[in-house]
Design goal:
Shape: globular
Number of helices: 5
CATH topology: DNA polymerase, domain 1
Largest sheet: none
Order of helices and strands: HHHHH
Number of strands: 0
CATH class: Mainly Alpha
Strand content: under 5%
Number of domains: 1
CATH architecture: Orthogonal Bundle
Length: about 100
């Protein structure tokens, strides 16, 4: 059985991809992360490159509790690729 290669292309047309990311940002199950990620999505998403959108999509796959702990510095994020995104989220929403 062959495995399909991973691509960096958006899984949907850009407009639908943005809508999907926005929905996922605002409907996570934890109100605190909904507010932080939803606000970021509303203000930043349209200007992001495809690579940044893919990174944000990967970030949305993380557990809410982990994201909240990273945002509040309760635990360090084990994925250095998320550091710039976390810095922006903290600066924008949490006033760090």
């Amino acid at each position: 059985m062959s495995v399909a290669p991973i691509t960096t292309n958006p899984p949907l047309p850009r407009e639908l991809w943005l809508k999907r990311l926005q929905y996922r940002s605002w409907h996570r199950g934890c109100k605190e992360t909904d507010l932080v990620l939803g606000h970021y999505c509303n203000t930043q998403l349209e200007g992001l490159s495809e690579a940044s959108l893919k990174l944000f999509e990967d970030f949305l796959d993380e557990d809410d509790a982990d994201i909240w702990n990273w945002l509040t510095d309760k635990t360090p994020c084990p994925k250095p690729e998320y550091t710039p995104l976390l810095d922006v989220l903290k600066q924008q929403q949490l006033g760090y």
